[in-house]
Design goal:
With about 350 residues, the chain is of the alpha+beta class. About 55% of the residues lie in helices and about 15% in strands. It has 2 domains: about 10-175 and about 320-340, Triger factor/SurA peptide-binding fold; about 195-300, Chitinase A, domain 3.
Length: about 350
């Protein structure tokens, strides 16, 4: 299983997924949604089985809940991105089957959840609603008004969480010693090339620019330089980039984060080398009739990262890798002996 969604299920997460998947169409939809997103019928599941897992039927309503968990913006857009919908559906089906297999295995092992924990989860559920009436409507819509069905679903979610805590989360812990051993065994991974962190404002020529357009581009670049030189902070430069820059980084305040020097145009790298942090360059022509102005955030020399500086991040990354490996292995074991029938 390669679906990247975090597998840990809590009652609160379950609540969010259920509430997100309710068969209600939003009151507003962006004007461009019909071109980019699937239509509202995806939000009207009929409770029909879509797969049976060891004889247990999972429905289109269950599938929709998982799909909305993967892509919560579906509620805003009244559907799923057409280009992504098939992948979202496949990932939701995969996760839905996995969770059912985990639940069945938890029951087979006779795991239990204390009544007090179920009651706390139910109290958390009620807090998600603006009023008791909204909560009752939710119970009516999702569980035909049955508190017993709701409690069973919450208990199921908590059993899945408990099983995965034992079989995956607890086993995925990475100690400082393990992280240090990995660091020592993979030195190349922690060598950093000479790099720059910087912001940019770029004035880019259109394809087949005319002489008049080229002249106008230079004028825009001169005006941008004057404004950029007046920017005295990251925020001021960034807001200016958002307003006038033509490159893709304008939506991120012109921030390029950290870039390997070898990946930069020679003219840009040379200009950055001449700056101190916080300083702004003159106009740089890095391609025919393409101009940029950069603000240096940091110049990072080539070298080896110290273990202390990467310890926490490395442990977290190794934990995620270990978690994914353990979950995939668990899924493979459960699926191997399961009877899964797509409807």
């Amino acid at each position: 299983m390669t679906q990247a969604r975090h597998f840990k299920i809590s009652a609160l997460i379950f609540i969010t997924a259920v509430a997100s998947g309710r068969a209600q169409v939003p009151s507003h939809t962006p004007a461009n949604a019909p071109q980019a997103f699937s239509s509202a019928p995806a939000f009207t599941p009929l409770g029909r089985p879509v797969v049976r897992v060891n004889g247990v039927a999972l429905t289109d309503q269950d599938l929709l809940r998982e799909m909305v968990t993967i892509f919560p913006y579906a509620r805003v857009h009244n559907g799923f991105p057409k280009a992504m919908e098939a992948d979202i559906r496949a990932g939701a089906m995969q996760m839905m089957i996995f969770e059912e297999l985990v639940y069945q295995e938890a029951r087979r092992r006779q795991l239990t959840v204390p009544t007090a924990q179920i009651e706390r989860a139910l109290a958390q559920l009620r807090q998600q609603f603006h009023s008791p009436q909204d909560y009752q409507q939710f119970v009516q819509d999702e569980f035909r008004g049955s508190q017993e069905l709701l409690l069973a679903k919450v208990e199921r979610s908590l059993l899945i969480e408990k099983f995965l805590q034992q079989e995956v989360t607890d086993k995925a812990v990475v100690t400082a010693g393990e992280a240090k051993a990995y660091y020592d065994q993979h030195p190349a991974r922690f060598r950093v090339p000479e790099s720059f962190a910087f912001q940019s404002i770029s004035i880019l020529a259109p394809k087949n620019a005319t002489a008049a357009q080229i002249k106008e581009l230079r004028k825009r670049a001169e005006e941008a330089r004057g404004q950029a030189k007046s920017a005295t902070s990251y925020e001021q430069f960034g807001l200016l980039a958002e307003k006038i820059s033509d490159d893709d980084f304008h939506v991120m305040m012109g921030d390029h984060k950290i870039v390997d020097r070898s990946k930069l145009p020679a003219a840009v790298a040379t200009a950055l080398l001449a700056l101190q942090p916080g300083q702004v360059s003159d106009i740089i022509e890095f391609d025919a009739n393409d101009y940029t102005i950069v603000r240096l955030k940091a110049h990072i020399p080539a070298g080896m990262q110290k273990f202390e500086s990467v310890d926490q991040g490395l442990r977290e990354q190794l934990r995620k890798e270990k978690t994914e490996h353990l979950r995939n292995a668990l899924a493979a074991r459960l699926v191997k002996s399961a009877r899964i029938e797509k409807v």
